[in-house]
Each structure stands twice: as C-alpha cells, then as structure tokens.
Amino acid sequence: MNKKIYIKTFGCQMNEYDSNRIFDTVKEIGFSKTENLNDTNCFLLNTCHIRDKAKEKVYHEIGRVKKNFKSKKKPLVIVAGCVAQAENEEMLKREPYIDIVIGPQAYHKINDKIEEYLNKQKKIEETEFDAISKFDYLGKIKNSASKVSSYLTVQEGCDKFCHFCVVPFTRGPEYSRPFNKIIHEARTLSENGVREIILLGQNVNAYNNQRYRLSNLILEIEKIPEIKRIRYTTSHPSDMSEDLINVYKNSKKLMPLVHLPVQSGSDKILKLMNRKHLISDYIKIYEKLKTINPKIQFSSDFIVAYPGEDERDFEATYDLIKNIEFVNSFSFIFSPRPGTKASTFKLIDEKISLMRLKKIQTALFDNQISMNKSLENNEIDVLVENKIDGGDKFFGRSEYMTSVIFNGSLDDVGKVIKVKVNKSNQNTLFGENMSKSELRVA
Ligand code: SAM
Ligand code: SF4
Ligand code: F3S
Predict the structure, then answer these.
(1) Staple 336 to which of 195, 227, 232, 343, CB 3.0 to 4.6 Å?
(2) Are residues 269 and 365 in the same domain?
(3) How many A from CA of 166 to the centre of ligand 1?
C-alpha cells in the first residue's frame, strides 16, 4: 500500500511543532505527506481544547472527512492533541469513524499503534503522560523542519493551574528537555536551512534542567552562526527571572518583542484566576526591560469578562493596555472549560462580554496601527521567509513579528535584509528592499 498521511492542525504553536514531529515519526514506517484529502489513506487531526466549542469542532471535522469518503475506501482516522487527551475513549464511543485516539504525551508510540490497529482492526486509545520517553524517542529521529522560522519545544506541561485553563490537564506536569538534546536539535534545524528558532513551552521561562535555564539555552543557540534570530513563547510573569531579563543586555540575536501574558489589569481578577502575580510585578518587569533596551515592546494575552470582573476591573485592563502600548496581542472572552475551577463560576452577560472585548481589541488595534505607522519612511530589519505564492513579492517579518511584504529575490530567503517601509496597515508593513537597491547601485 502507498501510505499517505494528511495532517490537519488546530491550536497553538506547540501543536504545530507536534504535527511536524508526528510526521517525522510516521515517515519511519513509510508514510509520505499529502496536502490533498482525496489522496490520503490516513487522516490525522491534531486538536486544541483551549476555548469555545473545541470538542464540537473536532466532531464536525471528522463528519466532513466521513462525507468526503462516503463512496471511497475509508482512511485510517487518528485524533491527536489536547481534545484527544481530555476526551479519550469517549471519542471512540461517540464517533465510531475514529480509529485511534492518541494524547500529546503519547504520540511517540504512534507507529506501534498504527500497526497494532492494522493487524487487529481494534480501536485504540493511548493517553498516558510520558514526556520523558516521548522526548527520548523524538531525540533519536531527525527533526526535518526546514522553514526559515521554525519551532523547537524545550519545555512542556504546566504546574500553575490557572483557574480558567485546561492545559495542565491536557499536557500534564511541567517537563524540561535536557539541554544538550535541545542544542543538538537546534543545530539540526540550522543545517536544514532554519534561520530563526522559536523556543516553545507552555511555560517556556520555567525551563529548568539540571543547572540550565532558558537564558542558558538562548545564549548557547546564539553561538550557531547560521541562526539569525531567537524568540521564545509563552512565558509567565512569575518566571521572568533576573538571568532571563539580563539576556536582553547580552544577546545579539534575541528579538526585542516580549510576549508576556498578563490576562487582566486588575489584581482582584488575577487572584480569582490564580495567576500568582500582581500588576505591580508585571510593571516592574516592564520597567527593567525598557531600561535595558527602550526598543523592547510587549505583547500579551487578555481574557475579558472573567467571572467576577466588574467595570472597575475591566477599566484597569483597558488602562494597562493604554499605558504599556502592547503590540501583536491576543484577547479572548472567558470560556468555561470542563474540569477547571472557573467552569463552575457565574458567567458575565454575553452582551457585556462582547462590548468589553470590542473595546480592548480597538485599543490593541490602535496601538498596532500607530506602531506600524511610526515605522513608515524608516528602514527596518526583515528576515525573509518566502516568496508569496502566485505573485512576485516576498514575505518576511520585522523584529516585532509584524508581517512585511516587499520586492526581493530568491537569494534573499533566509537572510536579514533592510526594508524601507512605504505603507502600513494594522497587520502588515509594505516596503522596498534596500539591500537590493544598494547592490544595484554598486
Ligand atoms: N501559558 C500561557 C500563559 O501562562 O499565559 C498561555 C497558554 S494558553 C495556550 C494561551 C492563552 O489562551 C492564555 O494566555 C489565555 O489568554 C487564553 N485562554 C486560556 N484558557 C482560556 C479560557 N478558558 N477562556 C479564554 N481564554 C483562555
Ligand atoms: Fe494555562 Fe496558566 Fe499554565 Fe498558562 S500558566 S498554561 S494559562 S495554567
Ligand atoms: Fe490548545 Fe493544547 Fe495548545 S489546548 S492551545 S493545543 S496546549
């Protein structure tokens, strides 16, 4: 049989990393990747459970596949990721079209599970938490990611148990991968052509393996000459240690955008969320980093209409957004997640929730628009990622992760070039490749 797998991924960056590693794994038993659903004999859905109707979205997606294959041979259907972990064998009962359910800490066993299923034709559920043997296994197979900007998971799981969040239940306890294995993977990525590494963890700045911290990882990866840029996500304010703050003094490759979720501007709400920090702690981090480098910008995640949030609490979040001038941020209405403490709390009226979301999103978008506008007529550094499909323009990112579109050549891909910004909107900068014109003049 010609084995072809179609992988669809929902959720965060870690799920994207996982999907790539799942492919690196199934390749070992002869699978190749397809982007064409009609052409596949294995459909894998990597799922996310963080908000809203996550579960329903998964069944809907499986329903679509079922319809697509109505008059054809059924593919092998695998559900992986955080919904798989949370729902486990319930999924097999509710949707018999699913053959294998496999959790995020068990996917290194996927080849055995596929073969077991093919031999016995018996449904399989595998949701053990076993991060150590997972990363042990993944360290032995080559990471084939080769995009200019690629993810590298260094830490997984969470012990913080914010009252709204499902992640500690779906990803399990905190686990930090061994330092040497991460550096080895970073070198492999650079050999594949990767030029920007984004270090990932549910609490990436809680990274702690023997004597190594996230700061050590950044400074070591920085020594790989081909790597031009380093980023990390997502961090927690209470793990923003002095050594990590100081890396912003010493590093030449760590980008000046700090993604540091604050969730709310009100200490009362932070306490109800079990966030374990105060707004004053957050401001202190902000001030220290701005003193080190005034060019540093902050991005964040916000939850509005958390149970108990009154007008004053909400205004505190709004004021914080105005004061810190966050860029590139995410905001959500609180969504009760099954099994979490906050799922039993009384919800805020939907109309009020929507109004609050709209108000803070407008403030966040205004920050973004003025930040982008302030770059017009200036030259900025852009890491060139790819040529845009079907056009002659190129795509890259600024130091602050903003998309940039400009004229270029295939030679520029993977390089940091100077782009003069001519025009901007909320999400994108448009410009002219100055490195090229200099070349032409010479
Ligand atoms: N570990 C990160 C942290 O400490 O902030 C975030 C992890 S989570 C994948 C990403 C974001 O989703 C969170 O920062 C939060 O804003 C949002 N989120 C998580 N649970 C949520 C919920 N129940 N309702 C709404 N938003 C939620
Ligand atoms: Fe979820 Fe909180 Fe852990 Fe982040 S720190 S993953 S929000 S429980
Ligand atoms: Fe979603 Fe799991 Fe990531 S719930 S956000 S895929 S850790």
Answers:
(1) 343
(2) yes
(3) 9
